[in-house]
Amino acid sequence: MTQNATPRQDQSLTLPQALDHIRQHLTPVQEVVQAPLQQGLHRILARDLISPRAVPGWDNSAMDGYAVRHADLTPATPLPVVHTLLAGAGHPPHLQPGQAIRVMTGALIPPGADTVVMQEQVTLHQGSILVQSGQKPGQHIRRAGEDLPFGAPALQQGQRLGAAELGLIGSLGLAEIPVFRPLRVAFCSTGNELASLGQTPAPGQCFDSNRHTLQALITGMGFECLDLGVIPDQPEQIRAAFSAAAQMADVIVSTGGVSVGEADFIKPILQDMGQIRFWKVAIKPGRPFAFGTLGSAHFFGLPGNPVAVMVTFLLLVRPALLRLAGMTAVPEALQFPVRCAQDLKKAPGRLEFQRGIFQRDPEGQWRVYSTGNQSSGVLSSMSQANCFIVLPESCTQIAAGSMVDILPFSGLSC
Fold first, then answer.
1. Among 2.40.128.110, 3.40.920.10, 2.40.340.10, 1.25.40.10, what is the CATH number of 336-411?
2. Cα–Cα distance measured from residue 273 to residue 7, given in angstroms and rounded to the nearest whole number
3. Residue 43 CA to its chain's centroid (Å)
């Protein structure tokens, strides 16, 4: 259900409101390129694919066994085996009444045959077979076009291509596929306190982790990465970097500088150079989150704390990037209830995503456990976890043994 984007008293949107607001203001890429099938993983299909042939192209055996005429089958009547057919062997001979032909899985069905009997259900004696009773006419035959008839829709525009889709395209004999060009995503970290790899951190500095997290997440989605590096808390340097990025990228993702501190410049710069649509979401971690535009580029300003970066990217940025890349039906993240193994606490007022580990207990029941320290600066909690524990806004505690919703990381591709 669509929810309006009316903010709360603290100007923050609920997560559904934020997602809906983002979705309404996205302009997907339109440029189409022909990509080799081998480079199609995670690409978005730009045209409907219509099957240029029937798959399979011929009736073939689904089993190792014997091709027969069903009318010839009686338990007491031996059928001489007159030929053996392998998969890919070409045109088979015609099966005469009262005969059997040995067939391997994938072998063409001989003309005259209408049934395949699996080899485990026959007795072979002196070149003939005796067939067990109970065989059904037409069994164990894969019919031509059973997977895809000629001219049938195979895949739809806007589908994201995974292993199954690439295999399906390969079965159609297509070496190239029409896809939208990869999204170009520029990303950066901001903050004087950050040092890049290879530098010696000054007193009070720490190594930047956010860019490496973002690069992995963006690359894993199949998009082009433009690393803007670490930008210090200097408005002019931020402006220059954003201006350059807006000329190169479809999307700009920054981390840090979106709160209300004296060195948080992202919001005013975004207001001045482009447009800001909202900048608070009622989730924890991740309340400070800016969404807007810089020129023709979409802009996402993430918090600076490492866990908040991952939470806001996975919940808010990832579905937006998929839509921008041309995906028409972005699936909702898988969420389902399991039993909580321990007491949990939270402050009311925000939807909270705690890091958890769900696994089977000794009795074989699925349970979820907290990773412990839930600080948004403890990135190791994400490495240890395999899910988010989703705690509603009004919730203040969960008693051990209660049911609680989780979001498995496997459904978020993190």
1. 2.40.340.10
2. 23
3. 11
Q: Would you list the domain boundaries of the chain?
A: 15-31+181-324, 34-53+159-180, 60-142, 336-411
CATH class of domain segment(s) 15-31+181-324? alpha beta
Q: Which CATH number fits domain 34-53+159-180: 3.30.300.130, 3.40.630.30, 3.90.105.10, 2.60.40.10?
A: 3.90.105.10
Sheet strands (E) in 282-383: 283-284, 288-294, 297-302, 336-340, 344-345, 351-360, 366-370
Mean pLDDT, rounded, for 227-235? 94
Distance CA 223, CA 214 (A): 11
Give the residue among 238, 315, 347 at the shortest CA–CA distance from 13: 315
- In order of 6, 192, 194, 207, the CA distances from 203 in angstroms are 43, 11, 11, 12
Residue 310's nearest CA partner among 231, 379, 219 is 379
- The 10s digit of each residue's pLDDT in 316-357 is 999 999 999 999 999 989 999 999 999 999 999 999 999 999
Report residue 281's pLDDT band, with 50, 70 and 90 as the boundaries.
very high
Measured CA to CA, the distance from residue 285 to residue 85 in angstroms comes to: 63
Q: Look up the pTM and report it.
A: 0.90
Lookup result for tokens 């919940």: 315
Give the tens place of pLDDT for each residue, 356-401.
999 999 999 999 999 999 999 999 999 999 999 999 999 999 999 9
